């Protein structure tokens, strides 16, 4: 079975992953494939490990710090109300964090729910369009670079 996270990290290392926003000390910032919540990003840990508990203290701090820098950047450049962070190590091999901006304009029933509710409620997915999102990628990258 192919691991999509490993593929995405390997393609990022080669400069071939079009979803890459920038490289952080702990990994790669990418724009998520599902943009139902605009600006949804992930931090893909590099080097590839399967669990945050396998990081030593300094690398663990760095990963979590980088994750929050991404959230700060999204707060600064998008008109967001809040950021949701999540790390699930049981679905795909490869440490990664989900960073979801949350907006005031979201439907009331979704505002206080995890971002996954959109999928559970069968809200149509907004697939990532790289061409359409080039300027968003650049804006987020510039702000992350400023904050690093």
What can you tell me about this protein's structure?
This protein has 148 residues and is an alpha+beta fold. The chain contains five helices and five strands, in the order H-E-E-E-H-E-E-H-H-H. The protein has a five-stranded antiparallel beta sheet. The N and C termini lie far apart (36 Å). The model has no long low-confidence stretch (mean pLDDT 94).
How would you name the oligomeric state of the polypeptide chains in this document? single chain
Q: How confident overall, as mean pLDDT?
A: 94
How many strands, what sense, and barrel or not for the largest sheet? 5 strands, antiparallel
- CA(first)-CA(last) distance: 36 Å
> How many β-strand runs?
5
The percentage of residues in β strands lies in 15-25%
* Shape label: globular
Radius of gyration: 15 Å
Looking across the biggest beta sheet, what order are the strands in?
Answer: 1-2-3-5-4
**Poorly predicted residue ranges:** none
Helix vs. strand class? alpha+beta
Question: Tally the helices: what do you get?
Answer: 5
What is the H/E string?
HEEEHEEHHH
Helix residue percentage = 25-40%
In short:
This protein is an alpha+beta fold and 148 residues long. It has helices at residues 4-13, 57-77, 108-111, 117-120, 130-147, and strands spanning 20-23, 27-31, 41-45, 82-87, 96-102.
SSE layout and pairings?
Elements: H1 4-13, E1 20-23, E2 27-31, E3 41-45, H2 57-77, E4 82-87, E5 96-102, H3 108-111, H4 117-120, H5 130-147
Antiparallel strand pairs: 1-2, 2-3, 3-5, 4-5
